[in-house]
Amino acid sequence: MGVEATGLSRHKCLVYDGPPSAQLPVVVPLLLDGLKDNWRCLYLGSPESVQMVDAAIAAKGVDTERERQRGALLFSSDRGHLESGAFDPTAMVSALCTFVDDAVREGFEGLCATGDMKWELGDDRNFDRLIEYEARLERVFREKPLRGICQYHSDLLPPRALRDALLTHRTAYLGEELNRDNLFYVPPELLLGGDEAAAEKQGEWMCRQILRVLKAERARDQAIEQLAELNRDLERRVAQRTAELQVANRHLEAFSYSVSHDLRAPLRAITGFAQALAEDCGDALGGTARQHLDRVRTGARQMGDLIDGMLGLARVVKADLRHEAVDLSAIAGEIAHGLRDRDPARAAEIVVQPGLRAVGDEALLRAVLTNLLENAWKFTAKRGRARVEVGRHGEEAGMPVFFVRDDGAGFDMRFADRLFGAFQRLHQQADFPGIGVGLATVERIVSRHGGRVWAEGKPDGGATFFFTLPATREDLSHERGR
């Protein structure tokens, strides 16, 4: 049973440097997991280290005093086994086996042990038998319910101790990084053999380890080359697709301008002849005929507006973006002033939050606010006293969230996905005139800036349009500090 269910050896070592607290990120989780799984947990080290580990476990919400009283948590600084000045691996392993058996007999699943090897082995001369101790200990981990991490401080131990630690541990922590499959590891039966046959088997084992490394390196190199080829192929396909899209965009642009030009000529003829007919023959026409003529002229005007909207949408998609700090509050204030001047009789309040800023193309962001505020102005026209608000609320994906809110006609959320489609409308032309291109323009501009736009509303309960835009670092820091 030398391997846990996760495939890791239960006999691990930790090689670390720095202050004693550097052991905590590895040691504390081991002990916490042991307590959770009903294993008796043992920590062996200096009095200072014991106090530090005790405090670290208590900081995780564990009542360490209660756990000690029930025998689940043991702290020890005992070095009685070194009183004679000699370290006996056999006696130490035997004592540890007794610890494991006692834990199981007293109702625990096993023993979870960790400790400072410098403290456990004492003076440097005791490290001469370290490899024997760890190899014997490896056998115990295979045979008994024992989990453990042997700690080695790289600055306090002789180099041979670190070498022997790597030879005897299948799994090793180097700092906080877990080396799941330590290629320096040699099984205990080969380390403890002591005869010529065991030495030859050690050589065979090391050869197999070297071959594993070489095989892993070849597999890595093949994977790198395959990945590089996939990237080259992806780059070729992206370049090809980009070129195709550029050609398609040019064709689409030429088509849109051609269509608009070709449509305008007959449209001008319809408008002109309808005007001439009204002026020259208006008196001779009956009431029904004049109504038909008015509808022709109205349809022609709407067709002209649709053509202008289509061209405007194409220009938004094509326009080069400038990136600069933009004062959205100032722009919204100018637009609000223009709306009030256009219809001074309206009892409407437009409130603009000060200090709204974003990074983007000022002309395009002005178009965003113009479309949203004109929409709000239009859809609150039937209110006795309307209110429109422009502001900011929180952030999303590292971008500030701006909004334009009104208390007008609103909309049914079931049809919200149609709001930002070109030439899509949720209200009758007779109630609220328009061609349905304003919100489509808003969506394309915001998307080109890397943000997104969405809306919330309810019929006759107003609407709020939210949109995100890049902001300066200072603006985001100010908002998060509020």
Give a verbal description of the structure:
The two termini are 56 Å apart. The relative contact order is 0.06. The strands form 3 sheets. The protein has a 7-stranded mixed β-sheet, sandwiched between helices. The chain has a 5-stranded mixed β-sheet with strand order 9-11-12-14-13. A two-stranded antiparallel sheet has the order 8-10. The protein has 3 domains: 11-192, Rossmann fold, CATH 3.40.50.300; 217-318, Helix Hairpins (Orthogonal Bundle), CATH 1.10.287; 324-480, Histidine kinase-like ATPase, C-terminal domain (Heat Shock Protein 90, 2-Layer Sandwich). Helix 6 (130-143) packs parallel to helix 7, helix 10 (287-318) packs parallel to helix 13 and helix 11 crosses helix 12 (362-379). The model is unreliable at 1-6 (pLDDT under 50). With 482 residues, the chain is of the alpha/beta class. It has helices at residues 24-36, 47-58, 64-69, 89-105, 117-121, 130-143, 159-168, 188-191, 196-281, 287-318, 328-342, 362-379, 438-448, 473-480, and strands spanning 11-16, 40-44, 73-76, 111-116, 146-153, 171-174, 177-179, 324-327, 348-352, 357-360, 386-396, 399-406, 453-457, 463-468. The longest helix is centred in the middle third of the chain and has 86 residues, at 196-281. The chain has 14 helices and 14 strands. The protein is elongated and about 130 Å long.
Query: If helices are DSSP runs of H or I spanning 4 or more residues, what is the number of helices?
Result: 14
- Name the poorly predicted regions: 1-6
Assembly state: single chain
Give the tally of β-strands.
Answer: 14
The major beta sheet can be summarized as: 7 strands, mixed
What percentage of the residues does DSSP assign to strands (E)? 15-25%
* Average residue-wise pLDDT: 82
> Element order, helices and strands?
EHEHHEHEHHEHEEHHHEHEEHEEHEEH
CATH architecture of the largest domain: 3-Layer(aba) Sandwich
Structural class: alpha/beta
Cα end-to-end separation: 56 Å
The level of helicity is 40-55%
The value of Rg in angstroms is 39 Å
| Global morphology | elongated
Q: Could you say how many structural domains there are in total? A: 3
CATH topological fold name of the largest domain:
Rossmann fold
